[in-house]
From TrEMBL:
<keyword id="KW-0067">ATP-binding</keyword>
<dbReference type="InterPro" id="IPR017871">
    <property type="entry name" value="ABC_transporter-like_CS"/>
</dbReference>
<dbReference type="InterPro" id="IPR032823">
    <property type="entry name" value="BCA_ABC_TP_C"/>
</dbReference>
<dbReference type="Pfam" id="PF00005">
    <property type="entry name" value="ABC_tran"/>
</dbReference>
<dbReference type="GO" id="GO:0016887">
    <property type="term" value="F:ATP hydrolysis activity"/>
</dbReference>
<feature type="domain" description="ABC transporter">
    <location>
        <begin position="4"/>
        <end position="251"/>
    </location>
</feature>
<keyword id="KW-0813">Transport</keyword>
<keyword id="KW-0547">Nucleotide-binding</keyword>
<dbReference type="InterPro" id="IPR003439">
    <property type="entry name" value="ABC_transporter-like_ATP-bd"/>
</dbReference>
<dbReference type="GO" id="GO:0005524">
    <property type="term" value="F:ATP binding"/>
</dbReference>
<dbReference type="InterPro" id="IPR003593">
    <property type="entry name" value="AAA+_ATPase"/>
</dbReference>
<dbReference type="Pfam" id="PF12399">
    <property type="entry name" value="BCA_ABC_TP_C"/>
</dbReference>
<dbReference type="GO" id="GO:0005886">
    <property type="term" value="C:plasma membrane"/>
</dbReference>
<dbReference type="InterPro" id="IPR027417">
    <property type="entry name" value="P-loop_NTPase"/>
</dbReference>
<dbReference type="InterPro" id="IPR051120">
    <property type="entry name" value="ABC_AA/LPS_Transport"/>
</dbReference>
<protein>
    <submittedName>
        <fullName>ABC transporter ATP-binding protein</fullName>
    </submittedName>
</protein>
């Protein structure tokens, strides 16, 4: 089944197209790759898929619903979550607090409920904390739960980003460069974790420049160049595609 489908997406900045009539789909249960040379439009496409920016034309359907009709927080609740770099402000919070911040629809978010339903709030907080500790355990960060997020290595920060996405119990994670700035040993570990979560039912769409990561993880890969579709296929197919090679060499 197709979990995410984008058709004929177009987005220009100052008259210059960043995404040019692009089409992409992600099959439920897959690990799908999105690659392309620098400036190909991958990040802009992620922003369009998650409705962070509005396309000039085209549409995005996630799990049978048009995302353009939903604000970003509702898209996350529906199960499409994207990772974000650990921002400076969050570096001064603990690793556990970073995860807890990602939880949603907490009764305690409503001012009056703090007085009206204190028992329920405490229970929700306990459950969220237990869930966060489970996730930290699954990404090898449980010993760091009470350390500042700012003290984590590049690779551990990447894992924390994924951990925050997992807190929302997503169907689909849009993962932005999981291997960027990460040492090779931890890259392999991150790939193993992604495969484990995928087996547990999470679908992934991954932007990545590291072709070894794409080759080892992905079932299918979409290639963008200058905002437009260039190729789609298995990692082996796209790696030997003449047009793809030319687009990369021509950079
Ligand atoms: N907000 C913006 N305003 C103006 N131009 C933009 C904006 N966002 C992206 N662009 C332009 O759109 C094009 C595509 O950029 P985008 O960041 O989506 O590419 P990318 O494939 O993610 O690149 P990289 O691999 O280098 O991260 C680039 O030419 C970029 O300069």
């Amino acid at each position: 089944m197709t979990l995410l489908q984008a058709k004929n997406l177009h987005k220009s900045f100052g008259g210059v197209p960043a995404v040019n009539n692009a089409t992409i789909d992600v099959v439920e249960g897959s690990i799908t790759g999105l690659i392309g040379p620098n400036g190909a439009g991958k990040t802009t496409l992620f922003n369009l898929l998650s409705n962070f920016i509005t396309p000039d034309t085209g549409e995005v359907i996630f799990n049978g619903q048009a995302v353009q009709t939903m604000p970003s927080h509702r898209i996350a609740r529906q199960g499409m979550v994207r990772t974000f770099q650990v921002a400076k402000a969050l570096s001064r919070l603990s690793v556990l607090e970073n995860l807890l911040l990602a939880t949603q629809h907490q009764t305690g978010e409503n001012f009056f409920n703090v007085w009206l339903q204190p028992g329920r709030i405490r229970k929700e907080e306990r459950l969220a904390k237990a869930h966060a500790m489970e996730i930290l355990d699954s990404i090898g960060l449980v010993e760091k739960a009470h350390d500042y997020a700012g003290g984590l290595s590049g690779g551990q920060r990447k894992l924390l980003e994924i951990g925050r996405a997992l807190m929302m119990q997503p169907k689909l994670i849009l993962l932005d460069e999981p291997a960027a700035g990460v040492n090779p040993t931890l890259i392999n570990q991150i790939c193993d974790y992604i495969q484990t979560w995928n087996k547990e039912g999470v679908t992934f769409l991954v932007i990545e420049h590291n072709m070894d990561v794409i080759m080892s993880l992905c079932d299918r890969v979409w290639v963008l160049a200058e905002g437009a579709n260039l190729a789609v296929g298995t990692p082996e197919e796209v790696q030997t595609n003449a047009q793809v090679l030319e687009a990369y060499l021509g950079q």
